[in-house]
Amino acid sequence: MAAPCGALSPSRRGRRCRLHAACPYPLLYPLLPVHIRYCISYRHGHLRGFEMHDDPPGDSAIFALGHLRRLQVDGARAVDWLDRLLSCKVATLATGEARLGCWCNIKGRVIAVVLAVRRAGGVDLFLDASLAAQVAGQLRRYILREALSIAEDPVPPAGIRRAGDGTAAVGDGPAQAAALPWDRRRAIVPGPAATDEAALLAWRLADLDAGVVWLSTPVSGLFLPQMLGLEAAGAVDYGKGCYPGQEIIARAHHLGRVKKSAFRFTMQSNEAPPAGAVILDAGGAPSGTVIESCRGGDDSSRGIAVLDHPADRRWWLCEFAGRRLPLTAA
Prior knowledge:
Elements: H1 34-43, E1 61-64, E2 68-74, H2 78-83, E3 98-104, E4 110-119, E5 122-128, H3 132-140, E6 149-153, E7 158-161, E8 178-180, E9 183-189, H4 197-209, H5 246-255, E10 260-267, E11 278-280, E12 286-297, E13 300-308, E14 315-320, E15 323-329
Antiparallel strand pairs: 1-7, 2-5, 2-6, 3-4, 4-5, 7-9, 8-9, 10-13, 10-15, 11-12, 11-14, 12-13, 14-15
């Protein structure tokens, strides 16, 4: 069976997790804490899968993240207001702290994946550039009588990649830098910064390796957070109050009825399939959707796709640009 990026958590009814056999130490599996067992199931048996790895550290660098944009939410009640709208807990953020979350529609489908960063006087939301204007317009409908403002920064944010082990918060960059919650050796900060295509590609591949996807327009509003692997990435807080789509997302979590999961994939092509590209099974029937992908070097591409259950095969066909190319889930 292919290794999922987001598989169902062990059942709360006490049934044996169907993925626990993949644990490298199966005899120890029942003795592990519940959250560790969940992570093993989520990454399908490889302990290194839920340790948020990235590429080896190199020299510190700052460069533009051209695929992202920043929404500035300003106002005295910006934190509490966003806490009622996003899937993550914004109210508990410390100044300068970042947290992954989702902006969902009333059906629980993720419109945009956002990184919320608290700052003095408001909150910054980093998200895919193609969705910035749309999300800003949707959020403004909820302002009502709140003394808030939402502005889109046209300048792409900057990424900071630190040398060393990155165990401490980013402190050698700009004052507004916020360390990524899934990778402390990298940080994000409002732009501008110089363009570095090689550094940007390494950054995006590191996000994909960590199971973090930035939804773009073609795949916006189609999938639940659990289908995208965002639940285990910490983007959903089941202990907070209501927000758009919360009831459906919570029901899927407690009942375990999710029919799709996110999988990492590789394919031999120097052209990465676009978001929304259709994935076919061996019989030619639609079986999944590409969420995000990048060139991985050596004439290959890597990415994350959502595939239907049961995903009992390791290869499929990806259809884009009038071609059908083999794709391997890994």
